[in-house]
Specification:
Helices cover about 65% and strands about 0% of the residues. The chain has about 210 residues and is mainly α. Helix 1 runs antiparallel to helix 3 and helix 3 packs parallel to helix 6. About 10% of the residues have low confidence.
């Protein structure tokens, strides 16, 4: 596998991991906002108009920014009818084919999200509610999250092709993980996957 593709996969996986783990902590922020709303409304009798909508924005950012990390760990929800009965190389061949449609979908989604964000900026778009928040921040986050998912989709496609053709990618685990097996993906021995421990290095890439 060409060295520049190996470097691309390492860097994208690294950033997907960092942003994904950062997004994981927003769930606690969302819980705190909802708890604040419940306490002020039911105990202090001072209802806040912004807590529910803020929690919705946090949840949207949570799954958009964390989408690439979920793709990297192969933990997204899927229904398997034929896939589980295939060999590892057969699974890689199927993934190489289906990832093309995923990338096409993400490109269309990115075009739409950029158009929506430009409209929000030009018109100063706000949500029609009592709080009336600006829609620009969440739409900018949406564009960033989709770009990261697109980059991760390409990274995953490269790894699927490498599995299919039996190519080596130094420092990158090409084992197909599913469901609970992805725990091993996060708990491998140090040095097995550079993306999860330290910024990747381009030294020693095989071309």
């Amino acid at each position: 596998m060409p060295g520049f593709l190996v470097s691309y996969v390492r860097w994208v996986d690294y950033f997907s991991t960092r942003f994904g783990r950062l997004a994981m902590y927003t769930i606690f922020l969302m819980i705190g906002v909802l708890l604040l709303g419940a306490v002020t409304r039911n105990i202090l009798n001072i209802p806040l108009s912004w807590t529910v909508e803020m929690a919705q924005f946090l949840m949207a950012g949570y799954y958009i920014v964390g989408g690439a990390y979920s793709m990297q760990l192969n933990d997204h929800v899927r229904m398997d009818l034929i896939y589980d009965n295939c060999s590892d190389r057969g699974k890689a061949r199927i993934d190489s084919f289906t990832n093309f449609f995923l990338i096409f979908y993400l490109v269309c989604l990115l075009v739409g999200s950029i158009s929506s964000t430009i409209y929000a900026i030009e018109t100063g778009q706000r949500k029609f509610s009592l709080w009336n928040p600006s829609m620009i921040p969440i739409k900018v986050i949406m564009v960033g999250g989709i770009i990261l998912m697109l980059l991760q989709g390409i990274s995953t496609w490269i790894k699927d092709i490498a599995r299919w053709r039996g190519l080596d990618m130094p420092g990158i685990d090409l084992t197909i993980k599913r469901g609970a097996d992805s725990v091993d993906h996060r708990q491998r021995k140090p040095g097995v996957m550079a993306a999860e421990q330290s910024p990747p290095s381009d030294k020693g890439d095989a071309s």
